[in-house]
Amino acid sequence: MTLPPRVPSTALVAFVGITFLITWGLIGIYIVFPDRAAAIFGEISGSHPFFFLATWAPAIAAFVVVWLHSGTAGLRSFLGRLFLWRIPAGWVAFILAGLPLVFVTGSLLKGGPVLAPLPPEGMVPVVALLFMMLFLGPIEEFGWRGVAQPLLQRHMAPIWAGLLIGAAWGVWHLPAFLLSGTVYADWSFLPFFIGNVTLAVLLTPVFNQARGSLLWPMLFHWQLINPFWPDAQPWDTIILVVVTVVVVWWHRNTMFARGGAVTGVVPATQARAPGAAD
Q1: Rounded Cα gap, residues 266 and 80, in angstroms
Q2: Does residue 12 contact residue 152 with C-beta atoms inside 8 Å?
Q3: d(Cα 261, Cα 205) in Å, to the nearest integer?
Q4: Alpha-carbon torsion 235, 94, 227, 104, what sign?
Q5: CA separation (Å) from 92 to 49, 85, 219?
Q6: Cα-flanking dihedrals φ and ψ of residue 59, to 5°?
Q7: How much is the CA Rg of the chain, to the nearest whole Å?
């Protein structure tokens, strides 16, 4: 059996370039030519096709990079990382229960509700939004954790890879803060940027202990945008920073060393030699 070619570290340049080109290009049209763009393509919003494409840019870039270097066989193996589900039970509890608790606690600290208030239409539209969100933010993980994380971990310790990805992730969102009609328009960029860096570092041990799984980073991301969780800013960021510091200290032996970190984009198969990776 012919194995998919290795995805080289230099592919990171193409991944970043394609990701930013798509997102900043599409959103940039509305920033530079707002009236003309709205007249031709319609008003931008969170449900606009351009907004979806801009959000999917890291995944599009990831698929392009993997296909160019590993072909369709490599893409199939890459997508197989969605089915890597084994992970320490503590991380399962944190993703499924700990993250919601962060938002609930943050909301209560600022005198808010336990859950986000339901709209007049009731729970049905919120459930619909929840499933729509599954096809927005979590899809980014094909890129950030699917390609960028393993490529960076070939050359640096996981802590530094997480910090770099978090910084790139935050800056990548910047054009959305210059648009009206999106959720980002009313947010402050600096706390959001700090939150992105924090989350990327916190996701790093999850990613590595799940052997490069894309399933758990996607579920993690989904929890972050779950419409049932209440507005907890700024307490959610503060709590997550504290949690991340504790997690990094607890996993310091693996976070500050390259040994054992996931470095393969296309996972090894039974046809590969033992220890082989792309």
Answers
A1: 9
A2: yes
A3: 9
A4: negative
A5: 33, 10, 10
A6: -70, -45
A7: 19
pLDDT digits (tens, 9 = 90+) for 24-74: 999 999 888 888 988 888 887 777 888 889 999 999 999 999 999 999 999
Q: What are phi and psi of 119, to 5 degrees?
A: -70, 170
Single-letter residue type at 5: P
Residue given tokens 């980002």 in the structure block: 184
Residues 6+ apart with CB under 8 A from 245: none
In three state form, how does the secondary structure of 158-206 look?
A: HHHHHHHHHHHHHHHCHHHHHCCCCHHHHCCHHHHHHHHHHHHHHHHHH
Half-sphere exposure of 213 (CA within 13 A, CB side): 21
* Residue 263 structure tokens: 């470095």
Positions in the chain short of pLDDT 70: 1-5, 180-183, 185, 269-277
List helix spans (H) across the chain: 11-32, 34-41, 49-79, 89-93, 99-109, 124-133, 141-143, 149-153, 158-172, 189-209, 215-224, 235-250, 252-255
What CA–CA distance (Å, rounded) separates 57 from 140?
A: 7
